[in-house]
Amino acid sequence: MTYGQVLLGILISAVLSENFILVKFYGICPFMGVSKKIDTALGMGMAVTFVMALASAACYAVNLLLIRLELQYMQTVAFILVIASIVQVVEMFLKKMVPALYKALGIFLPLITTNCAVLGVALVNAQQEYDFLQSVINGACGGLGFTLAIVLFASVRERVDKADCPQCFRGYPLALIAAGLIALAFMGFSGLKIF
Amino acid sequence: MEILIAVGILGGLGLIFGLVLGAASKMFYVETDPRLELLSDALPGANCGGCGYAGCAGYAEAVLAGEAEIGLCGAGGNESAKAMAAIMGVEIGEQTRRVALVRCSGYLGVDESGKVTGARRKAEYEGFKDCLAASKVGGNGVLACKFGCLGYGNCVKACQYDAITVVDGVAKVDSEKCVGCMACATACPRNLIIPVAYDKHVIIACASHAKGAVTVRGCSQGCIGCGICTKICPHAAITVEKNLAVIDYDKCTECGLCAAVCPKKLIASPVDTPEEILAIVRASMKNK
Questions:
Q1: Span(s) in chain B for CATH 1.10.15.40
Q2: Quick one: pLDDT at residue B235?
Q3: Which of B149, B246, B145, B233 is nearest to B188 (CA)?
Q4: Would A74 be classed as within a structural domain?
Q5: Does residue A104 fall inside a structural domain?
Q6: Closest by Cβ to A81, choosing from B13, B25, B27
Q7: For chain A, percent helix, then strand, then coil, each to nearest 5?
Q8: What pTM value is reported for the model?
Q9: Do residues B17 and A85 lie in contact, with contact meaning Cβ atoms separated by under 8 Å?
């Protein structure tokens, strides 16, 4: 298997067969919370993709340091520190340099600090011993998988909200059932092997 | 020893990130107009949306950009309008305070002879306790009057200031608590709620445009458009439009004469003892 094939395998599995939300069940809070409208879901997805790629890169560097000092058991704490700082710096940077992007992502960025998908991708990268490029691809494509899942789910919810259903199913109960059905569909990708 | 290394490394990382954050907050500092914060402080912060903007911050931004007028905030009233005008450096006159009025008087009750008064129910209603649902029941809803207050409190739910309660089957606004955001008016499926000036006391709390006979069948308290008030009014401030008396507040002097003669006792008035009413009638006779 060539290195390119490995990268392609990571890309496909991060988006589909190992989807962070629907297969691994990371980042469920924004998945349920910010999926009432397709527009906001897309905004959240883009912000998460951006931060996940960045966090993968930064956590890779920190992980190298931890391995050198044999402090791998501190990974979780160190990664949380890194992710929280990155999100803050990115927010300030965008506010100054790219106000348009800040307006689009602005309200979602602080929410991402507590998104476990971001911490999850860093820990998975460390566990799988991915190198730098693999980590970044896993992060970015994991984010794209998140976007795919949340946008799909938001479009389902927009329709379901208008449906005439029993009172006891309105709102979250029906959303949870819909989420379960989409997750079932994504389970179909498990065992997907390209090479 | 190992634990010291761990503590040192994490502490060091934290310190570095802290310094980076500190530097970044200096480097990427964005200047915002200091007036924005002052304007936000001058607003009540209830985010009721009565001004037509998305929350108080949205209104403050619109005022700063010159897109919105000062004084749209009902909750803040005079005080916040003056504070905002001072911040923006403009003059502003007194604001008239508006409050919501529910145009229905069909309170359920029993009069001296033991007869049930108020809006008549056509049937028992067992559905959702919701005005919209109750108004959709076949034959113009559960009330015999198709203009009456249904009393399931959609307006009560819409009110952020606890200013509306349902009393004897009809919603009632507490003018002291009401800030005039009119969120209740939007929530009412029968469009019963309108804004009136806070200091006006002569009000007609009925919205029935049905013919007199139909109104009487549906409610003991409804305006039947008899026109007695229009004849007695010395300032021609009341007219009957489509079987309903309407007050022109530009002409009304709040003498209370209309309230005194209304056969349905429908018009709320500033005076209510018989002696006071008699004095008003005598005074008007003298003028004629």
A1: 34-88
A2: 83
A3: B149
A4: yes
A5: yes
A6: B13
A7: 80, 0, 20
A8: 0.56
A9: yes
Encoded tokens for A180:
């379960």
Domain count, chain A: 1
Residue B265 φ/ψ region, left for φ over 0, alpha for ψ in the -120 to 50 degree band, beta for the rest: left
Pick the CATH number of B34-88 from 1.10.510.10, 3.40.50.300, 3.40.630.30, 1.10.15.40: 1.10.15.40
Give the ipTM.
0.72
Question: What is the average pLDDT score of chain B?
Answer: 83
Residue A105: predicted pLDDT: 66
Token duo for residue B152? 């399931």
Q: pLDDT band for A107, please (50, 70, 90 cuts).
A: low
Q: Name the token pair of B200.
A: 């006006």
Please check the confidence at residue B164 and state whether its pLDDT lies above 90.
yes
Q: Return the residue in B1, B7, B9, B16 with the most chain A beta carbons within 10 A, the one to mutate for interface testing.
A: B9
Q: Is residue A192 part of a domain?
A: no
What is the chain B residue with the closest CA to A80?
B14
The domain of A163 spans 26-187
Mean pLDDT computed over B102-131: 83
CATH number of the domain located at residue range(s) B98-287 in this protein: 3.30.70.20
- Range(s) for CATH 3.30.70.20 in chain B? 98-287
Q: Which residues of A touch B133 (CB under 8 A)?
A: none
**CA separation, residue B284 to residues B232, B257, B279 (Å):** 9, 9, 9
CB contact under 8 A, B14 and A88: no
Among partner residues B10, B28, B29, which is closest to A77 by beta-carbon distance? B10
**How many beta-carbon pairs below 8 A join chains A and B?**
41
Residue given tokens 């008003």 in the structure block: B280
Nearest to B10 among A74, A89, A96 (CB): A74
Task: Check whether B47 has a pLDDT greater than 80.
Answer: no
Residue range B58-74, pLDDT digits in tens? 888 888 888 888 888 87
Instruction: Tell me whether residues A96 and B6 touch, CB distance under 8 A.
Output: no
Q: Which residues of B are less than 8 Å from A65 in CB distance?
A: 9
pLDDT grade, residue A28 (50/70/90)?
confident
CB contact under 8 A, A74 and B28: no
Q: Is the CB of A89 less than 8 angstroms away from the CB of B5?
A: no
